[in-house]
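Standup notes
- DV: blocked on the single-chain target, sequence here:
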Amino acid sequence: MPDLIINSNKQLSAFFEEHFQLNDKGMNELITSFKTKRESKHSFILQAGEVEEQLKFVHSGFIREYYAEEAIEHNINFFEPGEFSTDFLSFQSGQQTRKWHQCLTDIELRVLSKSQFNHLLAKYSCGRVIVEKAFQNILECLESKAYNRLTKKPEAMYQHILEHNPSWVQHIPQYHLASFLNITPETLSRIRKRIS
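- DV (later): unblocked, structure below
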């Protein structure tokens, strides 16, 4: 167990060092404040109508993010190791989320409560930088995905996934990828055959 926490802390440190400039003391307190949490395949870690109360960093496993409308689900994103699976809008604003986050595999998260985060935010100026940078990254990502969905055909989008998120193809069921691409699983099968 201690080795697992050490490896997880290294993964978190690598993320923050790559994306943010934090002082050593603030970095250390931030990283060691995250706790380990495990969830089983198919369990929900966020449901529509809830308020996001934790920063959640994926250490292992895959999570899907989707909207549900009259029993129809629309996959909008997938989270893999090394990414945050937090609904930052709900976390920051206190508004109820409209998203669902479901584990596609058994997962291990590193989590930090909102109250602990706010404590660190008050203690170190770096916390504000994290929030601002996170929102900037989210907006850039959403804009890019919206652009791709509106301008690229499903085959081009699938090729983009192969190039930029190859682990999705290995670990995410085809029907979920098809939903993300807004096509049927059968159409996705034909695309995969053409590309391979």
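- Follow-up: The first strand starts at residue 35 and ends at 39.
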